[in-house]
Automatic annotation (TrEMBL):
The EC number(s) this enzyme carries: 1.11.1.28
Gene that this polypeptide is encoded by: ahpD
Subunit annotation: Homotrimer.
Function according to Swiss-Prot or TrEMBL: Antioxidant protein with alkyl hydroperoxidase activity. Required for the reduction of the AhpC active site cysteine residues and for the regeneration of the AhpC enzyme activity.
Protein name according to UniProt: Alkyl hydroperoxide reductase AhpD
Protein origin, superkingdom: Bacteria
Pfam families (alphabetical): CMD
Disulphide bridges: C131-C134
Domain Carboxymuconolactone decarboxylase-like stretches: 94-175
Amino acid sequence: MALDALKSALPDYAKDLKLNLGSVIGNSDLPQQQLWGTVLACAIASRSPIVLRELEPEARSYLKPEAYTAAKAAAAVMAMNNVYYRTRHLLSDPEYGTMRAGLRMNVIGNPGVEKTDFELWSLAVSAINGCGACLDSHEQVVRKGGVDRETVQEAFKIASVVQAVAATLDAEEVLAGL
């Protein structure tokens, strides 16, 4: 099982991450599609080969092909959007906020799965990528779609733990090679 492999790979000083990984993924109350779509999108967003290699096969086994593709699409489009909208927000010149983005993001309008699932995955990726504007936007869409705050919190808890596991394991790999 992927979770067990990741937990066993974590060093002793990251015991909290082991416990959190087991609880946010292994004991989640989210429906399978929301859970594993979030996990896959976050694994991709973490940019960690180790984490992606372990979590992708399990995510694939739980997701229908259209959900698997949509989760990857959420990670892809948010990799672009998070940089663009975070930069536009951080620049002190408000005129950038009035300019048309001119970037294709058609998948957001037609993701191939329920809109709220795709938006939840986009929110989780935005948490990893640190885009406040995108976090606000996607949170508003899922909340209007009937998703409760607890579900939103589950998504960004998954994002935070997957990212922390990725950072820790990637650092340990580099340190082992020194």
